[in-house]
Amino acid sequence: MSGQNGNGSGERRVLGVEQRPDGVAVVRMDVPGETMNTLQGNFAAEFAQVFDDLDKSSEVRAVVFTSGKPDSFIAGADIRMIQAVKSAAEAAELSRTGQRAMARVAAFRVPVVAAIHGACLGGGLETALACHARIASDDKKTKLGLPEVQLGLLPAAAGTQRLPHLVGVRAALDLMLTGRQIDGRRAKSMGLVDDVVPAPVLLEVACRHALSLAERGKPEPRGLQRFAAFFGKRELTQLALAENPLGRKVVFDQARKQLLSKTRGNYPAAERILDVVRAGFEAGFEAGLEAEALAFGELAISPEAAQLMNIFTATVELKKDRGVDDAHVEAKAVHKVGVLGAGLMGAGIAYVTTHLAKTPVRLKDRDDQGLAAGMKYVASILDERVKKKRMTRMERDRLLSQVTPTADYSGFHDAQVVIEAVFEDLALKHQMVKHIEAHGHPKAIFASNTSSLPIGQIAAGAEHPERVIGMHYFSPVHKMPLLEIIVTPRTAPWVTATCVELGKKQGKTVIVVNDGVGFYTSRILAPYMNEAAWLLSEGVPVEELDAALMDWGYPVGPVTLLDEVGIDVGEKVGKIMLGAFGDRMSPPPGMEKLVADQRFGRKNARGFYLYGDKKKTKKKRVDQSVYAVLGVTPKPGATPKHEIAERCALAMVNEAALCFGEGILRSARDGDIGAIFGLGFPPFRGGPFRYVDAVGALDIVRRLERYEKQHGKRFAPAPVLVEMAQVGGTFHGMRAVRAGARVAAQESARVRV
To answer: For an engineered disulfide with 92, which of 293, 415, 585, 604 has Cβ 3.0 to 4.6 Å away?
Structure first.
């Protein structure tokens, strides 16, 4: 057998085989023309053919399955293959095909060992699970996981059945229900891989391990006794429970209860994972496989999966988007970043810049006290990573040394990008611009982290307004995935491209929007929060309001969010929005009384909810005195929860459509990603624009008009929605309208063509 990816016909194959003199056949997967391996439609047939050939060779004593890519094992199935299925039956058969391919490995006559380096996710991990042993590299690029739930799916190549028997029910459900990825060391500690070694010796160690297994025989599937060597008392208790019907009921019923408290029934894939794992324990492995295939078939054509896969596709596209239309524009290299303001935002920006972008930071604040607090915050994030064994103490110290504090502008002369994260005060930001132009790099980019002030106003006093841009991060910076970059008509394209590239290196999903009050995210959040205030003024209880929006799919309710952001901050932003957009943003009377009563939210432990409660209860309790401050009498159950949710959600959706029609957004894709990643718009609904397409513009307009009659002009439908309703337009797909253009004009042009 040769090591060439050929079959004699000139067609390149995915799998190549190298027969070593020691009797190990090394099977390398290398999808032609791709940077990462993914499982595609033709994989199973070629897979079967390769193993059939190996089976016939008397020279083969063991097999090592690995990747021909430098930094990727198998990143999962090609999502386009799943999106192309037309029926549940077709998807179920796709699953069965994958199961059969994995079964061929699991039943192979000699040991098969997976040598894992790089991404080993989804179908990639299922391939490794089918092998008789797994050796992983200790490289940071090596990540193992089953992230299908994040796409509205479940593992469909026997992963739901093999993983629980390998690592235990609790650990398996944790991986499958969260979709989280773990490194090689963590995988070894839970029994997922047999050994972790440096990448340069990975293949040799895997080959030796395979030959060792050939000498002493393939390992038997681990039973309860075999687990004793790997797990503690708690894990064994879970396993023992899973071994008997009554125990299984306790384990899975408790898991479902915890799951529903988080998903609120909005993510069917997670519930189906529980069902399928349980089926395998109760009816046996083969029955579990069939349950897996049928569940995958149902999920693959579900609206939730369709929207979640759309989000995945959009994020992949954004990784390639440079933020500018001119393909000739190049981003400038950034070797140092300056950050003005060492508060939580500034310190968070410093952390992602050093840790992820691998770029030194000069951090400035007005005094030593502020700098000390900022450095302490950066250190606390690094310490948490050390505690979780995601980095060493030495790595922590090295990264912390890359953030150098200063109370003046020394050290800013060579910072190509300076990001300000100071108070929302226009005069202060003007002062920052002048200081950087006087003391900074001669061609420094000045980026403002403002959440509401127009970038054009900040650039008004600059000598070089073409180098002023907005970089709007979300708190906490090291956890929130979105970066909203704001450009003015005067922003130079190279400045935009440079900041987009920096944002990607900081680990962010980046969208670029045009300038305006509140830009996109803050602007669409304002009417959402304002409508929540109106509902409160009508007597909707705080807990009912939050619960209704969480049931609709938001991660937290609007009242909780206001407490977290700060009621005083909300009032300031509200005034800016009211000044810019008039009656559409008018708050109900009485909300100003909260600030007058010194209710700022969590930060001073006085808001809508009680803080510092000595009673150890998981559920937050409402501060009932807030109703007296507002002059409101709560009316439990008076307003249906679907109406509560719809009024707030439609306020956000309608404002998003206004932003689209005005050209604030470059595309509906960016608007969906911005709302989901920045504001927590329900992912399974696809974002504001996918939501409109799913419901239909006509239906959305009718709902808005109904609420407009009841509650006033703040519900007046956006012109783009009205015109789309008239002509059957959509935000995505074949009849997609263009951002910033009149729909009717587009439709007329389409008809003429």
So the answer is: 293
